[in-house]
Amino acid sequence: MSQDPSAASGSVPTYRPVGGHAVLVEFGATIDKRIHDRVVKLDAALKVAPFQGFVEAVPAYASILVCFDPLVADHRTTEAAIAERLAAEVPKTIGAMREVEVCYDPDLAPDLAAVAEASGLSPEDVISAHLSGDYSVFMYGFAPGYAYLAGVPKAIQQPRKPAPIRGIAAGSVLIAGPQCLVSTLAMPTGWWIIGRSPTKILDATSNDRPFLFDVGDEVRFRRISRAEFDARCLV
């Protein structure tokens, strides 16, 4: 993602046409809560006051894709409508607080010791740091229900692994850099696996609410024992 100086400073976003049906609105190029707050504000404004031809908005870390019906609107009118909504006063959106249970037993957290060694901490210190993180949902992507959380404490941040590992179990609690994620499917990953959660993030049987989180929600992790984990997995 290219960075526009004005976007990074929090003034004017960059607009980029996407095909014939969307505009990408970029507020910066980093994982930053101040930038993401502007993404969430625009998303909320479009929900409160959709413009003629509006179809949907897809928020990400530092940008939001605004899709429109090309039979009703175009890039120019969409950019103008976005600018109007950015200038308008919109009540601050307060996300829900969601709790996610996590068990850190060694067989469920195969990378916990490696993260501890790389961070110069004990495994218990890594767990404590992870539990203390200030997490919020920044975006969905990659796979169904994959909610990307920002807020991993700097003390345990690690770059992605050089290569992904296949067959990582659903429910794995993963970290990479400032990001955290709870996997919903058995998938390969190059992130660090520091625990596993029985909390259902994706409910494929629900038409009304298939995902536990909304973008902008706050997330709190709660440690559970192996016995609690096993019991929850039977539910």
Automatic annotation (TrEMBL):
Keywords: ATP-binding, Hydrolase, Nucleotide-binding. Gene3D superfamilies: 3.30.1360.40, Cyclophilin-like. The keyword Hydrolase applies. Residues 13-213 form the Carboxyltransferase domain. The keyword ATP-binding applies. It comes from the Bacteria. Pfam families: CT_C_D. GO terms for molecular function: ATP binding; hydrolase activity. This is Allophanate hydrolase subunit 1. It comes from Rhizobium changzhiense. The lineage of its organism: Bacteria, Pseudomonadati, Pseudomonadota, Alphaproteobacteria, Hyphomicrobiales.
